[in-house]
Every structure is written in structure tokens, then in C-alpha cells.
Amino acid sequence: MEAIIKVENLDLFYGNNQALKNISIDVEKNKVTALIGPSGCGKSTFLRTINRMNDLIDNVKITGSILFEGKDIYKDYDVIKLRKKIGMVFQKPNPFPMSVYDNVAYGPKTHGIKNKKQLDEIVEKSLKGAALWDEVKDRLNKSGIGLSGGQQQRLCIARTLAVEPDVILMDEPTSALDPISTLKIEDLIGKLKENYTVIIVTHNMQQAGRISDSTAFFLTGEIVENGPTEELFYKPKDKRTEDYITGRFG
Ligand SMILES: Nc1ncnc2c1ncn2[C@@H]1O[C@H](COP(=O)(O)OP(=O)(O)OP(=O)(O)O)[C@@H](O)[C@H]1O
């Protein structure tokens, strides 16, 4: 297996409150890794450490290391460059209040691409990559906010793809969506892993089972167990994992 991200002995404190405890995990390239666990166990906090989103929060202290392609993201990386390589999709679709086209072209433009033909190509490729092109190709100049919730979330995925990341972090990307839109995003995630590495926080264990190759089970800031999704679901090594996946708590 090829690990694109290696997390070693990661601790994170919000003030005096330790939210992540000695997290170590290898994330495999071109796979989907799901992060599961009860509310407040640190899944989102962990996801945010991977593209340094916690840097924006006061009073956060992080020790240990996260290596991305062998480089320490807290020491050897410029944060803007890092976020270009490691993109993020949030729980609630958050398109910018601008046209569908401009939503997708925004990232490449900020990274210096000005040529209209090149931008057109990026927009089309990204919308196709997010399985949205056919639905919006005739309304590229209409507002992104006018799309349905599921389309908005795919637009946000297209926006992320437009800057050609290697890794896509997703924080409960379907929790605000109806079942049909959810299945579309799940199908899409299955396709995305051909070209990208996906790490997804989900509350929905069926979803983790359906879409992920590996799963990490978090509990009170620690990873109790992680490994191939089937093993974790059907042959958990730790009693706490078994209790959680069989619905005994959480
Ligand atoms: N900005 C913050 N400042 C202080 N404490 C925080 C902050 N964000 C999260 N926490 C705390 O860190 C712990 C982990 O929270 P986090 O949101 O990472 O958990 P989670 O597993 O993603 O939960 P959920 O599934 O409910 O989203 C919680 O105790 C939470 O209260």
C-alpha cells in the first residue's frame, strides 16, 4: 500500500481541552477513508488538521506530525499551497454568490490562470468530474445559489476539483441532502478515488460501509481501531468498536 498521508502521534488541544490524543494513521492513496464515531469524538477536528484549517482558531496547540507525500505539513509547507493540494468540502453546500461558471473558475483565477479558453476547459472538466455538467451546461451564467441542494454540493466538489488537488476532505458532505442527492454524491465519491484520495467524516455507518475502503473509529479523541472497512465492520478487534457499530452506543 502507498500512504499519501502519514499521521504520527498527533495531539491537539483547544486551550486546556485535549480533543485529539496520540493519533497515528496512514491514509492510502486513491482510496476512500471514512472517519466514524459518536458526536464530539474529534472527527471534524482531525479532518481539519489535515489541511490546517485549525490554524484559524485561537488557542489551538498541535504536537506530533502529519506527513503529506513525505513532507511535514506544519513545518515544510506553505498553507496556501497545502490547501491547493488538499481541498475541503463542507457539511452544508456553500457556493459563492456568483454564477456556476465563476464558482468553479474562482480557484484557478486566484492561482493566476487568466486565459478564457483555459478557464472554460477547467470549468467543463471540473463540472464533468463532479457529475454536474449535463445538468448545468445550459445555465453556466446563472447563480450557483439557484441550484438544488444536491447540485450545490456537487458544484462545491467541482470548485474543489478545479484547482487539481490530490486529496479531498469531506466533512459529512451529504448530511444536509435528500436520499437521492446523497446516492449521487456517494456514486461520485466512488469515481473520484480513481484520481484522488478521499477522507470523509460521516455519521452514517451504512454510508461508510457503502463507500469506504478503510475506516477509522474515533472515540473521545482517540482512534480505537482502523483498517479495511469490511474487517472493521464484520470482524472488529476492539469491543468498543463492536459496541458502536452494532448500535449499542453513540
Ligand atoms: N473551535 C473549537 N474550540 C474549542 N473546542 C472545540 C472547537 N471545535 C471543537 N471543539 C471540541 O473538540 C471536541 C471534538 O469536536 P469535533 O467537532 O471535532 O467532534 P466530531 O466528532 O466531529 O463531532 P460531530 O460528529 O458532532 O461533528 C469536542 O469536545 C468539541 O467541543
UniProtKB/TrEMBL annotation:
This protein's name: Phosphate import ATP-binding protein PstB 3
Location of this chain's protein in the cell: Cell inner membrane
Stored InterPro entries: AAA+_ATPase (IPR003593), ABC_transporter-like_ATP-bd (IPR003439), ABC_transporter-like_CS (IPR017871), P-loop_NTPase (IPR027417), PstB-like (IPR005670)
Record keywords, A-Z: ATP-binding, Cell membrane, Hydrolase, Membrane, Nucleotide-binding, Phosphate transport, Translocase, Transport
Biological process (GO), any one: phosphate ion transmembrane transport
Originating organism: Oxobacter pfennigii
KW Hydrolase (keyword) present: yes
Gene Ontology cellular-component annotations: plasma membrane
SMART domains from the UniProt entry: AAA (SM00382)
Topology within the bilayer: Peripheral membrane protein
Any GO molecular function: phosphate transmembrane transporter activity
Recorded coiled-coil stretches: none
Enzyme Commission code(s) on record: 3.6.3.27
EC category: hydrolase
Annotated ABC transporter domain residues: 5-245
Main location as per UniProt: membrane
Reported function: Part of the ABC transporter complex PstSACB involved in phosphate import. Responsible for energy coupling to the transport system.
Gene: pstB3_3
